[in-house]
Design brief:
Distance between the termini: 35 Å
Order of helices and strands: HHHEHEHEEHEHHEHHE
Oligomer: single chain
CATH class of the domain at 14-159 and 177-209 and 260-267: Alpha Beta
Strand content: 15-25%
Helix content: 25-40%
Radius of gyration: 19 Å
Number of strands: 7
Structural class: alpha/beta
CATH architecture of the domain at 14-159 and 177-209 and 260-267: 3-Layer(aba) Sandwich
Strand order of the largest sheet: 3-2-1-4-5-7-6
Largest sheet: 7 strands, mixed
Number of helices: 10
Shape: elongated
Length: 274
Amino acid sequence: MTDLSQPILPGALPDKRQVAASFSRAAASYDSVAALQRAVGVTLLEQLPAALAPARWLDMGSGTGHFSRVLAERFSDADGVAVDIAEGMLQHAREQGGAQHHVAGDAERLPLRDASVDLVFSSLAVQWCDQFASVLGEALRVLRPGGVLAFSSLCVGTLEELRASWQAVDGMVHVNRFRRFEDYQRLCAGSGLQLLTLERRPHVLHYPDVRSLTHELKALGAHNLNPGRPSGLTGRARMQGLLGAYEQFRQPLGLPATYQVVYGVLRKPATQGQ
């Protein structure tokens, strides 16, 4: 254990066990189908302040460690910490290099000391956190004065085509729920961090058929994890209904899947009262 971390208490993450297990299972397949995650992470990197030169950075929700390796190359003199809730993802990341430290932990309860990092980078991870206010509070705690939090997430409107198509079939919860963009605005404004940028951008992917989309979501570990989701196998009739309902959205490039991506960059005040 590094001097940055403290042990995570057993049972501290009960509401995220399914998320952790799902992403751990997806560790080997994740990178092969992560085009959206790569594009969003690159866009988030482009929004970092130009003069930022952290002595220590944190990749929060680091997954397979792709952006830990990017951060390590960009800030070659800095110490890097990768934190993820999924041990399978961390094991995969350790084998690839990048961060100097790989720590199992939760963004709502970071296993880091106060004022220990200069950059918290988190791309497409915090949408799985129930209490985004806690995520912001933890970032405020672990950042040094003047440090930066840069995050991307998903909000309401994500996978709306898939949601609407399932709604036409059986009305059950088949698609993950996400918080509203207005909630991100409200929570960031009250976080104690200085808001530099906060925006929502649609990102549309296209697929030849519905099965290609659902296969990719499963390979990412991002398939439906919500309470109220149907159990067991999806019946043939319901699947045929889904295929028919989704066809109404078809475009020349294929079946669209729209992701409403939130990008935020915030800074910890350099002194109290700013």
